[in-house]
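Troubleshooting: if your tokenizer reports a length mismatch, compare against these two reference records.
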Amino acid sequence: MSEEGKRSMNTEKKKLTGCRDLFTSSWNLYKDRFWDLISIGLISTLVLFLFQGLFILLGNVKHIPSAGVSAVALGIVNFAAILVVILVTIWASAAMLVAVSKSDESLSAVEAYRRAWVFVGKYFWVSILAALIVISGTILLVIPGIYLAIGLSMAPLIVINEFDEVTIVSALKKSREYVNGYWWAVLGRFMFLLLVLLGIGILLGIFLFLPLTFLAAMGPQFNAIFRGIGNAIVDILLTPFSTAFWFMIYAGLKQIKQSQVS
């Protein structure tokens, strides 16, 4: 049998890990590394809340005539704060991927952030370029946007796990190669993840948002604060699991494609 025929048979035998196994693997990783993964989100959330407070403070200062702060100075500070928020968000996302990808090393949150720093630049531009491509497809029609989003969904993970082997553009191309032939399978697994997150979100809404809504009703000034805290808690709890699930899909695709080449 020709090499091409053997490769074709090998391709037919390979199936992407099922939703149940993906859930089990992701849950075990989430459970075993819970505090380290939660700490990554907690650190970024505290920093972002700090800068949100800075925005509120600046908004109050500019209305005080005696403050002596020029509009230009406020604009510069606002712009710098926005850049810091973007940097922290990207860095935290990269740190979460590093922690999940290197789960066997049991990295602490601080160590995950330290290792993730080298990936921030490439990770940022891959994410921006992928988003622009998806938005462009969505402007034409919704379906092309979904198709491109799934095809490029592995690019950030490729940047983290194959950093030295890829450029910004090749990471996007490699993501398309990984998903090629498994587009529907990847879409189905992301849909499954969405349903799981919705279910958990409903449970959190019952046990978390109802008390916070009651506290927020004490006064309009508390509404934004408590709702913001509630959203942050949900994000901190759910992001590690969804990241682990995402990584498991990537690992499965990578293993399949590598076996097809060998």
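Reference record two:
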Amino acid sequence: MGETVRYDDSTPMAKALEQQLLVRQSRRPGGALPRPEESRVMVVANQKGGVGKTTTAVNMAAALAQHGLKVLVIDLDPQGNASTALSVPHHRGTLSSYEVLVDGTPLAEVVQPHPDLANLFVVPATIDLAGAEIELVSLVARESRLRKALAAHPQVGGAEDRFDYVLIDCPPSLGLLTLNALVAGAEMLIPIQAEYYALEGLGQLLETVEMVRTHLNQELQVSTILLTMYDSRTNLAAGVAGEVREHFGEQVLKTAIPRSVRVSEAPSYGQSVMTYDPSSPGALCYLEAARELAQRGAPTAGDVRPNPETSAAANPSSDLGGAR
């Protein structure tokens, strides 16, 4: 699957690919995906902007929900793009992740249901969150506020009516908002754009993850990496994908997300691509990526993590010079 899902849906080749994907999906057994034994709290983060982070968070969440799993999306980005794409109110005055982090409002009071997907729920972000970085500085245990809120929610954990997945969409920075997410989560899902500059900040992100693991959250590990905006027609994309797969191995999903007009259009209609155009290549690829994520399950404590000192991501220019 990962070798064929790479084209913009505006090209004739993509139209042919779309038909192939539809046939492949129709032959695949339907039904719900396996439920994890307890809630998988996943941090969707990459401090570089424009890599498809929020797009990945909302579409993976929608895809998992369409497969029968119960999903909660927590929007920690002051821009509120995930809230927009999931069509939940997030104007000033709406109870949001700001109240959870700064005022200690219980998470259950902030959660909103998605208007179209019964299994999908959202904690929106408002513009008030832009000042949370400063306000959190003076608070006790400022980096653990989200973790405490999740621990107090009755549907996060191993209960029968639990959220199967909690996806935390982070801002494109490594400030206190992202730190709260890293302390709260057990897994990281890192979207990586298949372009040269997308790798430059990855080493810093991995170093931050290692520091959080050492001092604040020993459970945290990079479990999933997803290649986004992928186009196999360019040598650069192939070079970046090869480096990422070499250094991260099984952590990289086999399915890559293609450049897609439909994926880009969907948020302007207040939708994920899963509801905006379910048969488009982008939607089908996110469905396949979600299936892969669920079927591989949560990583075990002994899984190998990449070393940021030796990863090519920490020094991408060493091996990708010929791929520009």
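Descriptive notes for reference record two:
- The radius of gyration is 19 Å.
- The chain has one domain: 12-23+45-296+307-323.
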